[in-house]
Design goal:
The protein is an alpha/beta fold. It contains six helices and eight strands.
């Protein structure tokens, strides 16, 4: 099974929610990738350049229907989408944004069990579970260790980092998976 089949295999793998993470270097056409996601999936827009991120948001809104769009680390853009995704170093801001924008979906990324203790986010993406091209030097948590962290979290936890259609089978107990290459 190739990585591109993860979205189609979601039900059989019990993958839950699917999140496509955009990436300036690794995902040349995020709109085309998003078109293949099932309705109800999420896209987190992570373009580094603010103009590019806004243009990508407009293209995704125009070309995809039924997807949840979150702006990464960009509250101004989040106002025009469904919500905000925060990096771990800014995850403490989730309570602030929840108070100001109670209708937003808010996700955070976590790299440890401590990072999963963000009370005002709707979900956390735990990373990296497996070795990943996005962060080649990062030490992966492993599926077993990450599963224990997710089990102890008060938030729904999604697996991120090196997720493929093959290793997604090891991710029982997660609310879903987030990926770049595996969903394209």
């Amino acid at each position: 099974m190739t990585d591109g089949k993860l979205a189609r295999e979601r039900g059989r793998l019990n993958a839950g929610l699917l999140i496509l993470m955009t990436d300036d270097e690794r995902l040349a056409d995020p709109v085309a990738a998003a078109r293949h996601l099932p309705k109800g999936s999420m896209v987190i827009l992570r373009a580094r350049d603010a103009k590019k991120r806004r243009a990508l948001a407009e293209a995704l809104r125009a070309e995809t229907n039924g997807l949840i769009l979150l702006a990464a680390d960009d509250p101004a853009l989040a106002d025009r989408l469904h919500g905000l995704h925060l990096p771990e170093k800014r995850a403490h801001e989730a309570a602030h944004w929840r108070a100001l924008r109670p209708h937003w979906l808010i996700t955070v990324v976590a790299h440890s069990g401590r990072g999963l203790r963000i009370a005002y986010a709707d979900a956390a993406l735990l990373s990296p579970i497996f070795p990943t091209q996005s962060h080649p030097g990062a030490r992966p948590l492993t599926a077993a260790r990450a599963r224990l962290m997710a089990r102890d979290s008060l938030l729904p936890v999604l697996a991120l980092g090196g997720v493929t259609a093959r290793n997604a089978r090891l991710l029982k107990g997660f609310a879903g998976v987030a990926a770049i290459g595996a969903l394209t």
